[in-house]
Amino acid sequence: MPDFITVAKKSEIENGRMKEYRVAGRVIAVANVDGEYLAFDGICTHQQCSLAGGFLDGLTLTCYCHGAQFDIQKGDVLAPPATKSLGIYEVAVEGDDIKIQL
């Protein structure tokens, strides 16, 4: 089983916000939704826009480029033009550290 990799500190991501990190050659976004940290692919599957610049409403993320929407807990596409789901990563929180499993 792959190890967890520390990617962020809880103090870096305010509630209702997300940040982008580069981890092992991937772009990963981490969101704070009411104290629950969620990690997912940080690039839109439609036309490769950064999702960290999008709009987060609860678990729904809207890409700022073309309005595609995703469920950041499951990765599912909620609205086009995207048709491919996001990759989701398991998150563990230890103290102030946010860790993900690739």
Automatic annotation (TrEMBL):
What parts of the sequence cross the membrane?
Answer: none
Q: What GO MF annotations does this protein's record show?
A: 2 iron, 2 sulfur cluster binding; metal ion binding
Q: Which Gene3D superfamilies match?
A: Rieske [2Fe-2S] iron-sulphur domain
User: Which keywords does this Swiss-Prot/TrEMBL entry list?
Assistant: 2Fe-2S, Iron, Iron-sulfur, Metal-binding
* Recorded family membership: Belongs to the bacterial ring-hydroxylating dioxygenase ferredoxin component family.
Record-given protein name: Rieske domain-containing protein
Provide the cofactor list for this protein.
[2Fe-2S] cluster
Keyword Hydrolase among record annotations: no
Which residue numbers delimit the Rieske domain?
Answer: 5-100
User: Do the record's keywords include Lipid metabolism?
Assistant: no
